[in-house]
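Homework help board

Subject: predicted structure for assignment chain

Our instructor gave us this sequence and asked us to write out the predicted structure in token form, then describe one feature. I got the tokens but I'm not sure how to describe them. Can anyone check?
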Amino acid sequence: MNRTVIRGGLVITAADELHADVLVENGRVAALAAHGTDAAAGWSAEHEIDATGTYVIPGGVDVHTHMEMPFGGTQASDTFETGTRAAAWGGTTTIVDFAIQSKGGSLREGLDAWHAKADGRCAVDYAFHMIMSDVNAASLKEMDALVAEGVTSFKLFTAYPGVFLSDDGQILRAMQQAAANGSLVMTHAENGLAIDVLAEQALARGERDPRHHGEVRKALLEAEATHRVIKLAQVAGAPVYVVHVSAEEAVAELARARDQGLPVFGETCPQYLFLSTDNLAEPDFEGAKYVCSTPLRPREHQAALWRGLRTDDLQVVSTDHCPFCFKGQKELGRDDFSKIPNGMPGVENRMDLLHQAVVDGHITRRRWIEIACAAPARMFGLYPKKGTIAPGADADIVLYDPDAEQTLSAGTHHMNVDYSPYEGRRITGRVRTVLSRGVPVIDGGRYTGRAGQGMYVPRGTSQYIG
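My token output:
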């Protein structure tokens, strides 16, 4: 039997803060006991980890990543190997990535292609959502088969006409199917057809810089699409989860629906909490580094996002990690903002930035763990295997030093991208040790994991839905 004892730390979950020791057996949490008790003292193990002075927290669960995603004639610069290794460095031990159905192809073909990319390459555990690019009778029927094998969420877009966009009728049909099979529909909610008109008009006026990316993707068009998908879900009798919420007006739509008791959920991302249109407006094309969709908003939107996280109108913080290098990739749109690949790196920074939010007084320590670990695991059928420290849970455990200071930089991060959107930002808190199913993958500032250590995890249906 492989046993590890973690002694002397403050265990923080979404529900509790306990001065407790943790016993790990064969990759799972076996028991917790208060420091100094006979129960804890009686544990013997091959490995002992001194957690004095650290928080002992569940590994982060990032439910929105795009490793090796093709976009605009290029592809995201992190592979499943480099991206999951960077996730581990940042204290994230599970990712849920997006497999993509090609137009004219089947869901199965898309899922198989993503399994082939990830199999044997991941440093931490992983699962998949399914992007539906082609809603028809065949793909609707396929949804049931995917749910049965643990792919229990499907993403549809009101954006990107000609690539991902589904019309309202297609979204309604997918939501009806989800209502019947217990899965969860996720939506990228922006009015893509209207955005394309505004982008075409901006370019005709000679407005070509990155800042115009944010100006044409108006907050009102995010709010309109958010309202629309909520109403479609209500008609279908289905839950809906809105990804990467960035605008105050969109938060208001979610809050209004939730006040009516509707099963409506939302996530935001660190870039919307810590960055703004000021970054998009940086000179000499530097703003291209910050082009993502939904776009960064003016700084005054951040207060509504923080408030939504405190009031549970937003339940999850994920990253939408979709990195493109500045040189050779972001530069594809140097003369046309609409050709800049949409996406930013972040899988390594999420847990640290949210701890900084604790330091800054935006959220509590338990809320940090709720929005970064427990809620995403519950939302996507991974809890309590993931997202908590409790008997029977996978021993995905992070020892986090709350007093260590670090400076975020492309020079020190482990993501395969040539810039950091948080370059030079000083933050308090740092990962010391990371266990994935009881095995150290980060240990005292060294990477001790390996490609293939991460396993594919089939998921149950969402635990926020009856």
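Reply (TA_rk): Your tokens look well-formed. For the description, you could write something like this. The mean pLDDT is 97. That's the kind of observation they're looking for.
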